[in-house]
Specification:
Blueprint: H1 9-14, H2 21-50, H3 60-67, H4 85-97, H5 110-118, H6 121-130, H7 145-158, H8 179-186
The structure holds heme C (HEC).
Length: about 190
């Protein structure tokens, strides 16, 4: 420290308050480092203060549901190979139709299917696509109507039915919901 040493007038004029390396270090610390920590502290303070309690209504899932966009588009690859009846069944129908949930006719249960099979393929497909009593509409989802038809045939035939599996070229009941789309999808 040479604060007390005599200095000429010109020395005084050209020197600031920082005279030693230690003062320099302190000045740097206070002017750069400390503000940064202060800012970090403020950010913490502000974000913590705004955080609502983690209640059920504010769970991540609930928030995501609330701020989701209205309407959504589903991109389906119309050129993917059509699924077989069994594949569709295992993906979408088995939940109810294997165990016979909520009164669903079981796979392979001839007694349950016989009277239904008598109503004909079109009627069965129609029920599957549009829904019937406890069964919600099965059409319009991941699978094309034709594929739902195959699942219907898979189930009906597992229980004594003699329906032919619908083929892409001659999709019989495609007209039921979306003729144009089905026609192009069938190609
Ligand atoms: C949520 C459970 C559930 C799912 C999933 C489900 N079904 Fe069903 N399904 C039922 C029930 C219940 C019935 C009996 C409806 C009735 O006759 O009251 C039924 C009946 C049917 C029938 C007979 C309709 C008639 O006219 O008698 C067909 C065909 C059928 N389902 C096909 C399907 C196909 C194909 C799928 C999958 C793509 C499927 N179901 C998925 C519950 C379901």
């Amino acid at each position: 420290m040479n604060d007390n040493s005599p200095a000429t007038a010109s020395d005084e004029a050209h020197s600031g308050p920082i005279k030693t390396p230690k003062q320099m270090l302190l000045a740097v610390t206070y002017s750069f480092v400390v503000p940064i920590f202060a800012i970090i502290g403020l950010v913490y303070y502000v974000t913590l203060g705004n955080k609502p309690a983690a209640t059920e209504a504010n769970s991540e899932q609930a928030v995501a549901a609330r701020i989701q966009k209205i309407g959504s588009i589903e991109i389906r690859d119309v050129n993917r190979p059509l699924r077989s009846g069994e594949e569709v069944f295992n993906a979408q129908c088995t939940a109810c139709h294997t165990a016979g949930l909520v009164g669903a006719p079981k796979l392979g249960d001839a007694a349950a299917w016989a009277p239904r099979n008598l109503t004909g393929y079109d009627a069965l497909l129609n029920s599957a696509l549009k829904g019937k009593n406890a069964m919600a509409a099965q059409g319009g989802g991941e699978f094309q109507d034709l594929e739902i038809g195959r699942a219907v045939v898979y189930m009906a035939n597992s229980a004594g039915g003699k329906f032919e599996e619908p083929q892409a070229a001659a999709a019989p009941a495609e007209a039921a919901s979306a003729p144009a789309e089905a026609a192009s999808a069938a190609k």
